[in-house]
Write a structure and sequence with these properties.
The structure is a single chain. By secondary structure, the chain is mainly alpha-helical. Helix content is 70%, strand content 3%. Strands 1-2-3-5-4 form a five-stranded mixed beta sheet. It is globular and about 105 Å long.
């Protein structure tokens, strides 16, 4: 009798683990995941014919495309079990060369073989999915079939992480960012250190405009430092932030990993193009052309990089070159069409996007934009010479009454300051849904901005798109028009941070209270030393580290512009724009205009800000609040004051509120001490103090509806009609849809005995606004307009209004009486 040896379970597990570690396929995967590509290639070569397809995949990753192609062909000839994967790889290589016909032909053969197979393996399902991806152009069902094939691959082998990653890639290419995220997370749930899945999350975050993308891609590269797609994304993110040296380094690292990446050559070329390095650009273009004889992808990437740098005219030329090289590229067509729309080339942009949509009806960006253009056919266009207003028909007339004079004033002011005039007419588009504005800007929903400037085309939310008190549409329009000047004067070379800072500064110049202002959290961030130096501020806009950093960056940039003007004079900022136009980078501009290095400027600005906010910063360091942040200290005093007000302890409440105001004199929030001091003063009958206090809110807070309304009431009660009218005018820029505000402005404009001509004109404007709001009693509103026209001296206009009213209501007695009265008089021009 033979006795069997019993192997302990623990020893058996160790033995199995050792076997798996020695399995060459596992070894290849392990080396690939770690970025040890030379070792992966060595093990795959040693594995012989069974690992031929895997060897081909390693060679592709290393950029050895010709050898990879031979390896895949050999695997097919040898009828390797995973030869369908080799077919898919050859199809993808043909697509990389720009040979769409060969790629499509091979992909169709794969699909045919797959559909007739008896029992496809997980790798066969994967190969089919890859083939369907290549067949998506012109076939709306191919994307759906690809997803089904990838799902089948995962069902056949739950460890097929590549299938799940490709599912995420496909979702993201179709702009299904949330589905893509879930696909990558499904991989990470099983394999937390999967570098490619982490990279996928970074792509999703970048698509969504989140500032975390750069940190996430760093996590991916920590696991696989040779992951060329991750290195390329890092290059693009640095290029977007105008960190050209870093972008160049990452592009070169991507190419050292995969010399056959057209995208990486394009990113290196884009960096060179944007910095004027013609030698490197020519080398990059030549290298890309060697890989792809008609390098449409190269020019498309260049166009997108130019768009991100706001060089829209350059982008148009580059995108047209991309389309000329490959007229079937939906990517190139979509980039070109969207950019033509940015330049106001509406018919051309729509035609280009129509071409893209016909090739790929599943592309969300082109479909969304085309749907929006269909909607915009119902919009009304108002031409005024220098401006072309495009807005929903129901509110175009109302918005034009206010925005056109504002923009005319802004145009004159800005052209005088910067010595430059953008091409006219400047087109400004208003959207009554934020989602539509987002589609107009990005082709997708999700943009959090209020407005955007492409130069002589501005787009923004209409005031109806947002809740009252969250948006000032006047300051936003002024801000975006300023970009048209700063971009144009610098030939679109001004860095983002400076252009934004100048726009916010110009908002503050335009009207008291407009533009970003100091907040408790901003001063706290300054005190904590977490604000970025000016030399790194672009990242504050594009890659924010915390929720408020983007808003902090706008305000910080505007403060820098204030400092430059205070220390170097009013001409310093325009001179900086000209220096950027002439090709100088930021360190050179600082040295040339400010006479200091970037490090010196950073130090000077930090000192200037700390002097500017010295009073609230002292609260952060005083003994009794050393352990508290400014916000906590201020909140404690405010809570005490509100409690005292509720107990009718008015004297104590006033002292507490004054203490809170002294802690942060610049704060104008509607939850701050000045607002409550105004309420307390009104209650005590101290109108002067109430006006003084509420003015501290209205001149620092551009969306303070209740504060402006209170100020108007207080000033009217004191007989200060001009002051009351100024407060009511500010309300219109918060929301122009409140009829009582318009009526009140009209009545106050003509309520004094010394009414100026401009007051009569304002009354006419307000009566026109009431009609534009489509009141229930439109005839009476038009009669009131006729009265205002008479008071303003426009008798002929008044007659036209009255006759129009009487055509609709012949028995309207008030209109009859006023018309008879006018017939008995002559107009100032002598016409009855």
């Amino acid at each position: 009798m033979i006795r069997k040896r019993i192997v302990p379970l623990a020893l058996l597990s160790v033995a199995c683990l050792a076997w798996r570690e020695q399995d060459p396929r596992t070894e290849v995967h392990r080396f690939l995941d770690a970025g040890q590509y030379a070792d992966a290639e060595r093990v795959a070569r040693a594995g012989g014919a069974p690992l031929s397809v895997m060897l081909g995949n390693v060679l592709v990753v290393r950029g050895k495309l010709a050898e990879a192609e031979s390896t895949f062909a050999h695997a097919i000839d040898a009828r390797a079990p995973d030869r369908l994967s080799a077919e898919a790889a050859l199809a993808e290589l043909a697509e990389r060369r720009g040979d769409h016909a060969a790629a499509s032909a091979r992909a169709r053969r794969i699909a045919s073989t797959y559909s007739s197979a008896n029992a496809p393996s997980s790798s066969d399902h994967m190969a089919a999915g890859r083939a369907y991806v290549l067949l998506m152009s012109g076939d709306a069902s191919a994307a759906r079939r690809a997803l089904a094939a990838f799902d089948a691959a995962t069902a056949a082998d739950s460890n097929n992480f590549e299938a799940q990653r490709r599912t995420g890639d496909l979702f993201l290419s179709r702009h299904g960012n949330e589905d893509a995220r879930q696909s990558y997370l499904a991989v990470l749930k099983r394999a937390p250190n999967d570098a490619r899945a982490i990279m996928g999350i970074a792509f999703v975050e970048d698509f969504e405009g989140k500032g975390t993308a750069l940190a996430t891609i760093r996590r991916s590269l920590a696991l696989n430092p040779q992951l060329s797609e991750a290195l390329a994304l890092s290059a693009r993110l640095h290029l977007e932030s105008e960190q050209y040296d870093s972008a160049r380094v990452y592009a070169q690292r991507a190419l050292s990993s995969d010399t056959a990446s057209v995208q990486s050559w394009a990113l290196l070329g884009a960096t060179a193009f944007l910095t004027g390095d013609s030698a490197t650009f020519r080398m990059a273009r030549s290298s890309a052309t060697a890989l792809q004889p008609r390098p449409s992808e190269f020019y498309t990437e260049l166009a997108e990089a130019s768009i991100r740098q706001r060089r829209y005219m350059n982008a148009n030329v580059l995108a047209q070159q991309a389309v000329a090289l490959d007229s079937s590229s939906t990517h190139a067509l979509t980039v070109l069409g969207a950019n033509q729309l940015r330049l106001g080339q509406m018919a051309e942009g729509q035609a280009t996007l129509d071409r893209a949509f016909k090739l790929d009806a599943s592309d969300a960006r082109s479909k969304n934009t085309l749907d929006l253009l269909d909607l915009m056919r119902s919009y009304r266009t108002i031409d005024t010479g220098r401006f072309r207003l495009v807005a929903p028909a129901k509110e175009a007339e109302l918005l034009a009454l206010y925005i056109v004079p504002l923009l005319e004033r802004a145009f004159d002011s800005l052209s005088a300051r910067y010595g430059y005039k953008p091409p006219t007419p400047v087109r400004i588009e208003f959207f009554d849904r934020s989602a539509d504005f987002s589609v107009r800007t990005l082709g997708a929903v999700g943009l959090g901005a209020l407005g955007v400037s492409f130069g002589s085309l501005l787009a923004m939310d209409a005031p109806s798109a947002r809740e009252r008190g969250t948006f000032n549409w006047g300051s936003t329009a002024w801000h975006e028009l300023t970009h048209a000047f700063t971009l144009g004067a610098s030939e679109h070379r001004v860095p983002r941070w400076l252009s934004e800072g100048m726009s916010v500064l110009e908002e503050r110049r335009a009207s008291p209270g407009w533009g970003a202002s100091a907040t408790v959290s901003f001063v706290g961030a300054l005190g904590a030393g977490v604000l970025r130096p000016m030399s790194q501020l672009n990242d504050g806009f594009l890659h924010p580290r915390f929720a408020e950093e983007t808003q902090f960056s706008y305000y910080q940039a505007s403060l820098f512009c204030e400092m430059v003007e205070q220390t170097k004079g009013a001409n310093a900022l325009p001179t900086m724009l000209l220096a950027y136009r002439d090709g100088y980078d930021t360190p050179a501009v600082f040295q040339r205009v400010l006479g200091a290095s970037a490090a010196q400027v950073d130090a000077q600005f930090d000192a200037w800000m700390r002097a500017r906010f010295a009073v609230p910063l002292r609260v952060l360091t005083s003994k009794d609040t050393a352990s508290e942040k400014l916000g906590a200290a201020l909140t404690a005093v405010m809570q005490r004051a509100i409690g005292e007000m509720s107990r009718n302890q008015k004297d104590s409440a006033q002292r507490s509120l004054e203490q809170a105001r002294a802690m942060f004199p610049e704060y104008g929030g509607d939850d701050g001490p000045s607002w409550f001091l105004a309420l307390l003063a009104r209650e005590r009958g101290d109108t002067s103090l109430a006006i003084e206090s509420v003015s501290e809110v209205t001149t620092r807070n551009e969306t303070a509806w209740d504060a402006n309304l209170l100020e108007a009431d207080l000033r009217e009660r004191r007989g200060d009609i001009p002051g009351a009218l100024a407060a009511l005018e500010r309300l219109i820029w918060i929301s122009p849809y409140e009829p009582s505000v318009h009526v009140r402005i009209a009545e106050l404009s003509t309520s004094r005995g010394d009414v100026a001509r401009g007051d009569f004109a304002r009354a006419v404007r307000e009566r026109r606004a009431m009609i534009a709001l489509r009141p229930t009693d439109e005839l009476d509103a038009r009669y009131e307009l006729a009265k205002a026209l008479v008071a303003a001296g426009d008798v002929r206009g008044a007659r036209r209004e009255l006759l129009s009213v009487l055509e609709q209501a012949p028995s309207f007695e008030k209109a009859q009486a006023l018309l008879l009265e006018l017939r008995a008089k002559r107009s100032p021009g002598g016409t009855r």
